[in-house]
Design a protein that fits this description.
seven-stranded antiparallel beta sheet; TIM Barrel; disordered C terminus; 454 residues; 19 strands; six-stranded parallel beta sheet; elongated; homodimer; alpha/beta
Chain lengths: 454, 454
């Protein structure tokens, strides 16, 4: 069974709750919003990503007869629920920030308006889809900001957490500005440019390193990038210089070399020297091996002659921040605003809009979170994308999303473009929201148990 | 396109290298081993997991005509490679540690012996499968050791990194000793016990908390677990006490309550008191909300009256250690041992076995890594599981794997059973391996460039 398309990829309580809602007749419209409760210290902003996959999920949501029969056999559900699932579809509305939009804590990036059983059910997978791509897009943006003029490539499939993570990390990092990925399926699925060279095992399989270089070059004359650090990096660079005339005679140009271990700054400098002295000034240097955005900043500060960088595990696992406090909360049911008041987890009720102001320099100057009905107070970030379970328009292309993200990164305040964001960003909550929250609390209080703590 | 079953879920260089191998006639048998280079500070041991999915991948590996046509259209590959892919299958041998086996740094958990193009190609997805489940099994084992007598449940689908991670985290944590998961698909796919209660949104959708409790109880009379912390936890506990007689009259027993926020130790104690005073001594207390193995240890130290724990994001992202340095390295090609010598990444060559000794107390006393041909030196951990691309026997059941993991945890030295493992575990490298590594180095040296650094 493929996990990515099964409606059973959900938490048990979602189905349990549907049953209770049906039994109790609670099928009126509910409003849920998805947002991140707080930003981690090393994330000055986030980049929304994954909406296209979220909409695919909603449009294709249905239970197969086999899945329904299995649920029935568990004995956990009543006949009414089982019957209901046969025609279960998502028929609701979605409003969302476009993919690639920079956003901050407590700003909804997606709103679901749908009959309560539907709106409740989609929670687990919606978070699962949007959380991961947003996490990786935000992580990738840090590398893009740290090395704006370098070729950045996602190398992280192998240690990504499973198949879908490997694929979607390629998409999310491309949105954030990476040049491409090594993950072939991301080329096939999304048209993302593919990059790749050779592994150490290729070199080791030959008895002679130069023979390995030559065999590879002759097999791939159009894309010769040679891996230098299997045995001795500088020695390998000299072998490349010595091999170049032979290849040139065969009409083959060496495009680049890759370094995957050791002191990459020092090695890049010495290899650059060897290549330049050998007349290979056009050969580029690509590095990889346990790198992250901090490495990129160190390369830039050392003025290392590095042209491209493969970033793997740190990107696809978002190693320093492997999760965001991304939640999906009920804001309104049957026309009445709702609010959770749990300790440190209280939420703002109602249907919301986020307005963004810009300074005279074109940079983002502050956001205001309001009720949806609030007067215009800047550029609105949340837009309708689905009505009645159908997309209002085809999703933007990945390159359109990527251009939007690029524009967003350009408009970020300078403080947020640093790897250690100092000053925060102003996100204000409008009076209408504060007032509504107080009203919800007062209503709850009035209904509370006699003698309740206040 | 479903990522989990496409052969295109690989790194571009794997296909690039196949083409070069074919062009150069390098199709003899290669031996690759998969291992973890070093253990993170907070992991005293790891638990092998994911072998069953790895074998599924190998048995089902093939390119569809559509995938081959797409690869052809990229223009990156020659006709020989494209032709070769039509009949590409994995026809090799696999030797591996059984799932649930405790292992340590540099110990191979899987060996591939196959024609070089095949053995090379499977690298990316084999690591992707085995790395993640092993990562989560090792993380889950820490909670099992910290709270041996508690009901532990995986709640982490939503912030797992994508669909497959959500599903496989349930499998890996069940192997390590969790009681079950909230992820429904893991019940359907693997028969893992399912757990679930209700969300805050369920409570909020009702105008009255008691009404929400009662509606839920009537809809699920067989599994009534009520969530207490939506507004005021202690107040909600009193509502549960007040509601119990009404439910009892209807033949419904409240099984448990769940707390998801606040000071869980203090709240568990006060809620326990309220329930006990209200005659609900049999009602269990289940907690959740940002918990990890350190929380569990704190609960135990405080003697908190907590019966079960839902562990989410920290488990499924292995938050403190979101990746392992898991690699897949060429050890032998065409009957000659191979070795990478990159700085800090040198590997031991050849086909290996891991032997484990036990003390008189039955606990693990030390491992020895040797060549496969070494004399018996303890219990061998690596066993044949696939020959000629086919499993030698059906894989063990998940419950058999779980029993094996339980036995392994029982046999761990006491120092490794702590969350902050102090003393390490003895893993020795046998003389035959050291000698072979020296021979490989001497051979490489002899072929090196004149004037090479030594």
């Amino acid at each position: 069974m493929e996990p990515a398309t099964s409606p059973l990829l959900t938490d048990l309580y979602q189905i349990t709750m549907i049953q209770a809602y049906l039994d109790h007749g609670d099928t009126q419209n509910a409003v849920f919003e998805l947002f991140v409760r707080g930003l981690p210290a090393r994330r000055g902003f986030l980049l929304a990503a994954g909406l296209d996959q979220a909409l695919d999920f909603l449009e294709n949501l249905r239970f197969s007869p086999v899945e329904i029969a299995w649920l029935d056999r568990t004995g956990k559900f009543n006949a009414k629920l089982i019957d209901y699932l046969h025609n279960f579809r998502f028929t609701g509305d979605i409003d969302a920030m476009p993919e690639g939009t920079a956003f901050f804590a407590n700003e909804p990036i997606l709103r679901v308006t749908a009959p309560l059983p539907q709106a409740q059910f989609v929670e687990s997978r919606l978070i699962n889809i949007l959380h991961y791509q947003t996490l990786v897009a935000a992580k990738a943006a840090r590398s893009v900001l740290a090395a704006p003029n370098k070729l950045l490539v996602d190398f992280g499939l192998r240690r990504a957490h499973g198949a879908e993570a490997g694929l979607m990390a390629a998409r999310a990092s491309y949105i954030a500005g990476f040049a491409g990925t090594a993950t072939v399926l991301a080329g096939e699925n999304f048209g993302i440019p593919l990059y790749g060279t050779m592994a150490h095992s290729f070199i080791e399989a030959f008895d002679d390193e130069t023979a390995a270089f030559e065999a590879f070059a002759r097999a791939h004359p159009g894309n010769v990038v040679l891996l230098l650090d299997t045995y001795d990096t500088e020695l390998a660079a000299r072998k490349v210089v010595a091999l170049a005339p032979t290849l040139k005679a065969a009409g083959i140009t060496i495009r680049g070399v890759r370094l995957d271990s050791g002191d990459l700054i020092a090695l890049a400098k010495s290899v650059r020297g060897i290549l330049d002295q050998g007349g290979l000034k056009a050969v580029t240097i690509f590095v990889s091996g346990g790198l992250d955005e901090d490495s990129l900043l160190a390369f830039a500060r050392a003025n290392a002659p590095i042209d491209g960088i493969g970033i793997g595990t740190s990107l696809t696992t978002s190693a320093d921040v492997p999760s965001l406090d991304c939640v999906y909360k009920l804001q309104d049911y049957a026309g009445t605003a709702r609010r959770k008041r749990s300790e440190k987890k209280a939420t703002w009720p109602g249907r919301k809009q986020v307005w963004r102001r810009y300074g005279t320099d074109g940079r983002m100057a502050g956001d205001l979170i309001t009720l949806e009905s609030h007067d215009k107070a800047g550029e609105p970030l949340i837009h309708p994308v689905m009505r009645g379970g159908r997309r209002l328009a085809p999703s933007p292309s990945l390159d359109e999303i990527r251009r939007h993200a690029k524009h967003e990164l350009e408009r970020l305040p300078e403080a947020l473009r640093r790897l250690e964001p100092g000053a925060g960003y102003s996100v204000e909550v409008a009076d209408d929201l504060v007032k509504l929250a107080a009203e919800v609390d007062a209503r709850l209080q009035a209904r509370a148990w006699p003698g309740a703590k206040t």
